[in-house]
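Checked the freezer inventory, then went back to the computational side. Two predictions to log before the end of the day. The first one is the construct we discussed on Monday; recording sequence and tokens without edits.
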Amino acid sequence: MLNALRSFFDRHLAPQPEETPAESNHRTQLAAAVLLVEVVRSDHDISDTERQAVLGSVARKFGLSPEEARELLELAEQESNSAHDLYQFTSRIDASFDLGQKLRLLEELWRAAYSDDRLHEYEEHLIRRIADLLHLSHSQFIGAKLRALSEKQKSSS
């Protein structure tokens, strides 16, 4: 028990070495990818369509090659499996992204949720929690949802 507490405090309270800008950028990309993974996993049914949507999102958002996007997705899935909460990811994004970047990420979360042609209530609830943790307003949350839905409807017709 004491070792677990000591380990926790060492990880979270010990001074951290300074990150290089590249390391910080990679960690922020990973945090965004984890949130995308969390959204598509929230309904307990990850379709191939959802997986492809997440791959497309990270490739588009970060200018990654298909191979780099796959590697990032694999890392994100590993991080998601061991994560205890969303805060460790949203706090990094909140500190690193400006408002426009946060809104674009929110739209990507909605696109991922809509990618299987149905929005599950768990997906919507999780995106709401993420929006709150990113300090986005309800109107920004709804605006991103409507933009993603409109885009989905245009591509379906």
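The second is the one RB wanted added to the comparison set:
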Amino acid sequence: MPIVLELLSSERSTEHLLSRFQEFTAYEDVLYYVWKLLPTVVLNKQQPSEVFIKNFLSLMDKIPIHIETIRYEESRESLLCCREGGPDFVQNSDHLRRWLNRVWSVVIRWEHSSAIHQQLLVVLLEWILPHLDKPLLLTDYLMDSLDMGGAVSLLALQGIFILIKNHNLEYPNIYGKLYSMFEPEIFHTKYKARLFYLSDMFLSSTHLSEHLVAAFAKRLARLTLVAPPHDIQIILMFIGNLILRHPGLKRLLNHPKGGEVSLDPYIMEERDPIKSQAIESSLWELQTLQNHILPNIATAAKFINMPLPSVEWDMSKILENSADDIFEKELKKKVKEITLTFDRPQSVSSSKGEKVTQYWALT
């Protein structure tokens, strides 16, 4: 107990000690008795300091439990403290689940900053949610988190998705919330890959309204005009997959009545995707990308000019791509012809903007 209390300091961060302590949580008895102690610790804290909460969440992140697969193994190598001839250690999964639920019911009521809120959601999604007895009680908490914006909203969205998928949660305006998250700021958040992954899951059904899916495709296309190159690659695949799932959206690729850019009927500021008039627009943004400065982006955008494949593109391979990955790929390319001038010469005289004739007289 003294060791755990020292790890849960209210005055200083103990992240370095927790990393060392994690080596001992590989032992089943250590893990078991730490969880046995935690309910007593949290019940004695009415409103702990932010430092304590951060240390506590870091500890929970270091002591994950897998209740479904835990069983006593005859090998004593999984125990830190065992005596020859002593009583056998038996791990009780029901006790572990009860302690976890008791701890979490207290932790989630603590007041915390935005940074702690983000850390709490990560721990919840990674380790806690699968073991809660009544996960639907998190609905209000996740809905409130969804309105906070930024990384907190993305993490809350993942929690809501899990509740919808595994526990039949009904969320009436989930697509409107998802639609509103696609703003230029999303490209600078830590968990943007989760947003693309979850959006792909939410929009995977072929029974969704084409007006709704068209709004997502159009909003994504508009964002490509301001997105970093590595994110443009993801968006292009995403739009392509949406069109494959809903062949009726092919009309957006070459809309006969789409009009000029200045007359685009799409309303970017409309929060309701159904009312955005995306279905009446066209994906002219993808045509614009065919003139992108990076050849791989320009080439990828040309998929709208060719027959679509019979299977979807695998987005998972590039979800974690970065600008460095694109740079490294360009470095490895072998250039057959090196460009020496950017202006087509019109005569044997010096090219446009040449300074040689300004300072030299050629005879």
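For RB: Residues 68-75 have pLDDT under 50 and may be disordered. The chain is about 45% helix and 0% strand. Let me know if you want it refolded.
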